[in-house]
Structures are given as structure tokens and as C-alpha cells.
Amino acid sequence: MKMKKRSVPIPSILRDVLIAAILEKNGAEYTSIRACPYCGGILSGYDTIIRNYAVLRIEDQTRKVNVHVKRFYCTGCKRLCSADSPFYPDTRHGRDVVDIAVAFSSVMSYNRTAMVMNRIGIMIDRGTVRNYVKREISSPVTTEMFGYPIPVNMVQGAAASFLSGRRL
């Protein structure tokens, strides 16, 4: 007997809120840092790199969300460091994606979290979800929307996106 794939019902407004909050970061530039995080020394501009914030699937098309992060050279310890940016240390995805993964994992399995995020349009795999949760990244402040714990900062980001008139 064949097993049928169960479709996870995702309310369209929930999808729109999360996707809008992530798209709000597309093309953003992060250029400031107070001092060298290693020695507190004086920094000199070095270059700007493009970091992948998220990969989204919108209307059956894959879309990368990238941000620009300025790097600096420390005149004291001779190390490179990056401007303050919306990434947790040593993560491949932006803070919003990690926050969603951690929040969803608080109420469902890693596999289901990845499945729900993919149905929303946020491309991530089960192993990556598990790794983010195992890092013990503090759980974001959440609010419940349609039975899902949604990070409050994402709701605020989506509101800013909708108010500015951006479209998906």
C-alpha cells in the first residue's frame, strides 16, 4: 500500500508575513562596527562581501536574498573582522531563518520544521535545523499566528515591508 504525502496546510498570510520579513533584508548593507572584536584596536576599511541571507521559493522560482557586509582590517592585531550583521556566529543563514527554525523546533520535530519551512518557501533541510537548535541559540521572543510560534521581530519586519509598499 502506497503512503500518501500529507500536505501541510500553511495559511497564505503567514507565508506572506515571513517571506516579506526576509525579503526586506535583500540588498541591505551592513557597514558599521565599533572596534576590533579581538583586541579593541582601530579598524580600517578592507572590502565588502555579499553573504547569502536566505534562499526562497516564490511562485516556483528560487530566489536568493543577499546582504552586503563590509569587512575591516585591524591595525592593531592585523586581523580581518566583519561589520555587525544579521547573522549568528558561524551560520549559513540569516538571523530570521535561524529564529524561525529554532522557534518552530520548540513545538515540532526537526523534520517537520524543515518541511513546514519549505512549504512556506524558506529553503532549509532537516540537518541544518537540527544543527541550529543544537547550538543552543537562544529562542527568540515569539507570538502565535495560526498555531505557529512566529518571532516577533519578523512580524515587525513584515509590517515595515507592507507599509513601504513592497511586493513579493
Care to describe what's here?
The protein is an alpha+beta fold and 168 residues long. The chain has one domain. It is 33% helix and 26% strand. The protein has 5 helices and 6 strands; from the N terminus they run H-E-E-E-E-H-H-H-E-E-H. The chain has helices at 12-23, 95-105, 110-120, 126-134, 152-163, and strands at residues 29-30, 43-58, 61-74, 80-82, 142-145, 148-151. Strands 1, 2, 3 and 4 form a 4-stranded mixed β-sheet that branches. Strands 5-6 form a two-stranded antiparallel ribbon. The mean pLDDT is 88.
Total domain units: 1
- Largest β sheet strand count, sense and barrel closure: 4 strands, mixed
By DSSP (H or I, 4+ residues per run), the number of helices equals: 5
Q: Could you state the order of secondary-structure elements as H and E?
A: HEEEEHHHEEH
**Share of β-strand residues:** 25-35%
- What structural class is derived from the secondary structure elements? alpha+beta
In whole angstroms, the N-to-C terminal distance is 40 Å
Round the mean pLDDT to the nearest integer and report it: 88
The number of distinct β-strands equals 6
Radius of gyration, Cα only, in angstroms?
18 Å
Shape: globular
Model regions low in confidence, pLDDT < 50 over at least 5 residues: none
In helices, the fraction of residues equals 25-40%
Give a brief description.
The chain is an alpha+beta fold and 168 residues long. It contains 5 helices and 6 strands, in the order αββββαααββα.
